[in-house]
Amino acid sequence: MENKKSIIYITLLSLLLIEILSLIGFNYNIINQIIFIILTIGVFILSLYKLKYGFYIIIPEIIIGSKGYLYFLEISNFKFSIRIAIWFSLMLAWAIKIFIYYLKNKSININFIKSSYFKYFLIFFIFILIGAFNGYYNHNNLKNLFFDINGWIYFLLIFPIFENIKDEKFLYNIKNIFIGSIIWLSVKTLLILYIFTHIFNFTENIYLWIRNTGIGEITIMPTGFPRIFFQSHIYILIGLFFIFVLYKKISINFNKYSDFFKKENFKYIFLFIIFISSIVISLSRSFWVGGLSALIFLWLIMLFFEKINVKKFIYFNLILFLFLILSVLLILLITKISIPKQIEGINMATIIKDRAAEVSGESALSSRQTLLPILLNKIKESPLLGKGYGTIVTYKSSDPRILKNESSGLYSTYSYEWGWLDIWIKIGLGGLIIYIILLFKIIINSWKIYFNQNAIIFLGVLLSIICLSTVNIFSPYLNHPLGISLVIFSVFLVENYKNK
Questions:
Q1: What b/e string do you get for 419-439 counting C-beta neighbours within 10 Å, with b at 16 or more?
Q2: pLDDT below 50 — which residues of the chain?
Q3: Is residue 474 a contact partner of residue 143, using CB atoms and an 8 Å limit?
Q4: Rounded CA gap, 455 and 450, in Å?
Q5: Taking the alpha carbons of 111, 113, 119, 120 in that order, is the dihedral positive or negative?
Q6: E strands of 162-273, at which residues?
Q7: Which among 185, 314, 365, 427 is least surrounded, fewest beta carbons within 10 Å?
Q8: CA-to-CA distance for 169 and 167, rounded, in angstroms?
């Protein structure tokens, strides 16, 4: 237990330091460049010593970094993100280890090749290569092609992570680093909420840092409430479902209401409140729909497969509703603190209701509706093999930031909001189908392990993939390192358990 707490505390302190240095580096580029170089070389040396050490750095970066530009190096108008740098460092260390092993043993030993998932990934990688070739063949801009495909090459981490397939300490450390990282992400979200609902002289600097490093987006709503959206909030949502299933196992055995207030349950109460608060603050309908889809699936499992009695089912959901109320109250408490002077007129009930009920007129939703038929027409041009990476589409956006620079609202991009359609356009119908098969295999294997072995964590894996797949309908995640990382670790967890 003490070791677990130590890992979480070290993760929290490390991430606090990393973010403070990133903020300083945003104002003083020399600091940004120095930290970039230190991290890149550090990950390479650590990974060369033991591959798992590289993952101890990659995982928290994914969770807090969103687009990966907490630190960056700019060369000839190219911005190389710290995410690309540490990915390359770890992959290079793995390749060197494989080469050294070959020199010593005259054979190649790659654990992932022995996995039952290898054949699916092999076919999938072929379609990714086809997407790269198509992008080049269709004369797509090479810079666009590179930045479009660079997220997909994150899948290659599946090879080095499998070198730790039987290392239980690796799994234990990863779990606690994950917990520490999403706790920090939640706390950071609440801190930023406090800053942007009060009057501080440094608010603009924080806003520019968040926006320009790609950490997230902050939009001031008409009521004055700041919508704080980080792409990496998806991991808080994923973490929430792992807490759900763990708490479900405990709460359905409560015999009386006082059981809820037992000391050992306080950690769940704390995590529920800060995680749900962060998802509410994001005001992301994609997250809300994804979370609801996974929750409905959980309800179906509880009622029809686990056959939990109705009384316990209702009690469990009343507790979840209580957590939601407490989370909203926490948000209100933060916004109403009067030191320093707070922004007036914030009504959380109205904000959530209006956000959930908006079906037209809102800029992001309007832009998605305009984009949809254009993407469908693009798919019709080459439905089987797709158009390749870097494929540009032009549509009329309602985003105020785009309208500010282009009065017509016409916007060209190779990155689309409709995640599944993006995948179809880039790697074709065949690539889309094999990706779905891969995700379905993770779901089926997690289902079998959970019900046959009663391994509760795999119910969390199952719900996470369902949630992520739903969110991907509206926002691109399964073609981005944020979603790809979850797929990789889900495969690793399944195969690690099967190899016990």
A1: bbbbbbbbbbbbbbebbeebb
A2: 1-2, 359-361
A3: no
A4: 5
A5: positive
A6: 217-220, 226-229
A7: 314
A8: 5
Helix 285-300, helix 348-357: angle, nearest 10: 80
Sequence-separated (6 or more) residues with CB below 8 Å from residue 27: 205
Q: According to the model, what pLDDT value does residue 249 have?
A: 67
Cα gap 23→368, rounded to integer Å? 32
Q: CB count, 10 Å around CB of 352? A: 16
Estimate the crossing angle of helix 457-474 against helix 285-300, to 10 degrees: 140
Q: Which helix (H) or strand (E) holds 141?
A: none
Residue 282 contacts residue 288 (beta carbons within 8 Å): no
The DSSP H or E segment spanning 393 is strand 393-396
Task: Encode 160-197: b = buried (16+ Cβ within 10 Å), e = exposed.
Answer: bbbbbbeeeebbebbbbbbbbbbbbbbebbbebbebbb
pLDDT tens figures, 452-477: 988 889 999 999 999 999 999 999 99
Distance CA 316, CA 251 (A): 6
Contacts of 444 (CB under 8 A, 6+ apart): none
pLDDT at 400: 67
The pLDDT of residue 297 is 94
Q: What is the pLDDT of residue 360?
A: 45
Inter-CA distances, 231 with 29, 208, 333, Å: 24, 16, 25
Residue 325 has φ and ψ, to the nearest 5°, of -60, -45
Q: What are 269-293's pLDDT values in tens digits?
A: 899 999 999 999 999 999 999 999 9
Q: Say how far residue 233 (Cα) sits from the centre of its chain.
A: 6
Inter-residue contact 73 to 36 (CB < 8 Å): yes
DSSP state of 417: S
Hey, what are 33's tokens?
């460049």
pLDDT of 255 reads: 59
